[in-house]
Amino acid sequence: MRTQLILRYLVIIILTWISVSCSEDQTTAPSTSNSNLANFSEIKAKVFVNCTGAQCHSSAGNQANLILEPNVAFNNLVGVQSVLFPQFKRVEPGNSANSLIIKILKGEVSPQMPFNGTPIPAATIDSIAKWIDQGALNN
């Protein structure tokens, strides 16, 4: 029980940092109709860089046992069961509606990421969802 609580707080902190980091640079947010982030390399470069820069989802921070550094992010997300919400996969290829990353970014589960920060723009979340719905390829 205590471990779950600690992991939940860690996820909240990480997601908060993501929101704050992403919201500070809205110039990189894609439009909903013509997204540049619907591939994994763009998501890593424009979104996950904020998650690791704050030491939340880096090998140093490792919040919720989730490292989003470029060389390991894909294998830590796609098809991986969530530590905090084991009923969900972090990313379920082809099913963004049931992927925890989308639920957390949209605030459908608590804590919303980034924790205590400005939510990531809807267009960016839509782009991540599009990548997931297209099969969550390592592209």
Uncertain spans:
13-35
Average pLDDT across residues? 77
Instruction: Tell me the total number of β-strands.
Output: 0
Give the SSE string. Answer: HHHHH
Spatial extent as radius of gyration: 13 Å
Query: Beta-strand level of the residues, as a percent range?
Result: under 5%
Number of helices: 5
Shape: globular
Q: What profile does the largest beta sheet have?
A: none
Task: Tell me the span between the first and last alpha carbons.
Answer: 37 Å
Helix content: 40-55%
Judged by helices, strands and strand pairing, the structural class is mainly alpha
Q: What's the gist of this structure?
A:
By secondary structure, this protein is mainly alpha-helical. Helices cover 44% and strands 0% of the residues. α1 packs across α2 (40-53).
How would you portray this structure in words?
There is one protein chain. The chain is mainly α and 139 residues long. The chain has five helices and no strands. Helix 1 crosses helix 2. The radius of gyration is 13 Å and the shape is globular. The termini are far apart. About 17% of the residues have low confidence.
